[in-house]
Amino acid sequence: MAAFHAVLDLADAGAAARDLVGGKAQVLGELATEGLPVPRGIVVTAAALDVDGWETSVAEAARRLGATRFAVRSSAAAEDLSDASYAGLYESYLDVPVDGLADAVRRCFAAATAGRVSAYHRRHGGRASAMAVLVQMMVEPAAAGVAFTAHPITGNRDQTVVTAVRGLGDALVSGEAVGEEWTIVADGTTMTRPVRRGEAALTAEQAHAVADLARQVADRYARPQDVEWAIDRSGRLWLLQARPMTAVPETVSWVPPGPGLWMRNFRLGEWLPEAVTPLFGTWLLPVLEDGFLDGMQASVGVRVPFRYALVHGWYYNATPVPSPKLLAGVLWQGRGHAVKVLYNALVRVGRNPAAADRAVLSGLGRHWRDVQLPAYRRLVADAEAEVATASPDRLAGLIDVLGREAGIHFWYLAIVGGSAWKMEACLTRFARRHLADVLPDARGGAQVLLRGLSGIEVTGVGHAVQSADWYHPTAAELPGAATTAGTSHRHAQLVEQRAAAEQACRAALSHRPRLLAEYEQLLLVNQRYAIIREEQARDFTLAWPVLRTCVRRLGEHLASAGHFRQPGDVFSCTRDEVEARLATDPEPAGLSAVEERRQQWHRQRGLAAPLTLGSPARLIGDVIDRSVQRARGSHEVVAGVIEGHPASAGRATGPVRIVNSPDDFDTFREGEVLVARATLPAWTPLFARAAAVVTDGGTLAAHASLIAREYGIPAVCGTGGATTRLRNGQSVTVDGTAGTVTPQ
User: Fold this and answer.
1) Which residue from 46, 182, 491, 686 puts its CA 20 to 30 A from 552's CA?
2) In a domain, 592, yes or no
3) pTM, full prediction
4) What average pLDDT is seen over the chain?
5) Which CATH number do you get for residue 1?
């Protein structure tokens, strides 16, 4: 093959085929020819390795660049695409002398077959991994970093976010360093992540120059860009890499759907970590909500609707706003019984848990265990026995029956199991007041009394879900389930720690019999309801495997009848559309509508949905936020620290691993900090390897907090956007007692 195809000047790479020079070199070649400040370089194609003496050709071409040290980086054909960046997966070598270029080039080519590259490659459609290697003159930076031409959290295209560190920028890109952060807006500059005095990497003028350069690249390609840059010791700005921003949020308006405070983390929102599919939103979701009210009617004697809505596909639930009409209805429909149940379950339980247990909660708990749960299990078993041969109409009927029963179960989870976190708040207050010298941490030490409890399942079950949306596979459907090896030993340690803490508390209160009796009551009721909450959360999704089978069979039927191209299209339809298709002949025009709705759902999944919309009612306020503040205590948060809910006490430091779905489970390593939008029961096996857990959503009562405690690891929930603010490999300290995540 001709030498031209073996080693090219970077300036010629912009006009070359992407499969020959790779994405990185092609883009930089284009930008260099348009006059942007790209360091001079050469591109070594895969063909070079088949040419005798290619090492000499590379060394000679490099010397002509007029430098003595070089940066050697991969440039793959599948790299830096709009939907797949391959960021950080290939190798880079900096400050390489001429006589080390051949070895660095060989190692870059070898990295194309690494396991992490192959795994990422499979998840993004199996694109060809042809690649070249880019050799550029080494820039000795005084400062370096990354610029995003759209805000990575909000998607705002009018803001450019510049992150910077002193010296080389690879520590920032890899996540080892945090750096300072500048947000460049139309009317000025705001530094949103300051650094300690004397350590600033950029001046305001330099930050603006970086933003201007990044925007030139964005204008050139007409889409938001992720740009790596450096400023050398003479003050010259260089463009090192440019690629499209992947998963950039759409710029949408998050308008509350009604008055009051709307929360993404409340009730079913805990189980829905992303935008829901049209089929779930119009079928199973309303059935679950109706079942919830049926359970309330049966046990309380009244239906108090909870307002909920889908905003850009995301589930939000409104804080109840009391009105004279609503209160009168409760009093009239439920007589005194409704008032008694609701008062004890919602108010008294946080003040005197033992009294609330005796008055109401124990009876509700017995009814759940003795009546409702067995009925739920029977319905699931009966449905499993007939689903394989059921007609389409019968499949729809099974969905309604099972969904309603799951909704009733969810009512008991809310009213009985949901009492656990209110009881825990009471135990925590008692510990702060009377046991601060005994427990390891007055703010979170009470949690040691609720760990290592018998009856809490930490190994996972087949019907565990990653989302209540039936689109997603259950745990039993996931290939290669993560191991939970070592959990029994860890559990035994927690049992010992709890027993020792219990005895230490008793000894400290032994000379105060009234307080000792109060402690024993609080301990007993807290431990019992912690177990009940986990049992109810575990069994809520008993019906999901058969529900998914029902939907899958409906999809297969409609696809075979010509209504869909493939069975999975059913998830992009509404319930009314499915029922209409079951009753009519295929409509070709409907196929394009299904595809458009699927694409819309995928866009909605990438949005950065706020945790709350609107404003709290004056008399009620944000109950969860007040509980978080009480749990956090007097802790003060400093700039740059991510705040969330203190979900599981303790501190741990480790590298970040962002897990978006079970497809990423195999990449998770022992000792990493699990960062995710939410962690539902299907994710439980990862906790055995995690140093700590951080989630965008969730609250004090979330699954992540329950299981993290049983694994003895800290957890912070409800951060709002940790998955977008942190990077893989970045070292962080997670303080589950204070509810903070501190980048190192």
Assistant:
1) 686
2) no
3) 0.74
4) 84
5) 3.30.1490.20
